[in-house]
Amino acid sequence: MTLYNLYVFNSKGECICYKEWKRENKREITQEGEYKLIYGLILSLRSFAQRISTKDGQQYIKYFNTSGYKMNYMETATGLKFVLNSDPDAIGIPELLRTIYSIFVETVVKNPLVTTETTIESQLFHSRLDNAIKSHHSFV
Where on the tree of life does the source sit, at the highest rank (predicted)? Predict the structure, then answer.
């Protein structure tokens, strides 16, 4: 089991953070193209879930599973979107996403010098994020 990479999108759909740990395949498109592809996939999955639902109210996507990876997803009330790609058998990922969000709130949202309008350059955020990922039991 392992954790591959993380995308954080702001409410405008801009990737404000990308981190990679154990990505096995090289990207075949530009980084910006990959961000758009991932964001488009999220929007498509949300739209699909909403359209086929038999229940009223907002439908939530928690993950997208393939034989090679699992795309774990969390969206906040403010429109931030966190996407963590992992091994399909990785466990404890929803809790890890909540931990990442807590780190984000403490080091980005509560810091008046950091904005979510551009790429996050906060060294404190990146170091705490790395510590959380590397200490998680699914990071092998």
Answer: Eukaryota
For residue 107, give the DSSP letter: I
Compute the residue count for the chain. Answer: 140
CA-CA-CA-CA torsion sign (39, 28, 133, 128): negative
Q: CB count, 10 Å around CB of 14? A: 14
Tens digit of each residue's pLDDT, the chain (140 residues): 688 999 999 999 999 999 998 887 778 899 999 999 999 999 998 888 878 877 766 667 888 898 989 999 999 988 999 999 999 999 999 999 999 999 999 999 998 888 888 899 899 999 999 999 999 988 87
d(CA 58, CA 99): 24
CATH 3.40.50.10420 correct for 3-135: no
Count helices and strands (H / E) in the chain.
Answer: 3, 5
Say if CB 119 and CB 140 are below 8 A apart.
Answer: no
Q: Are 116 and 80 in contact (CB under 8 A)?
A: yes
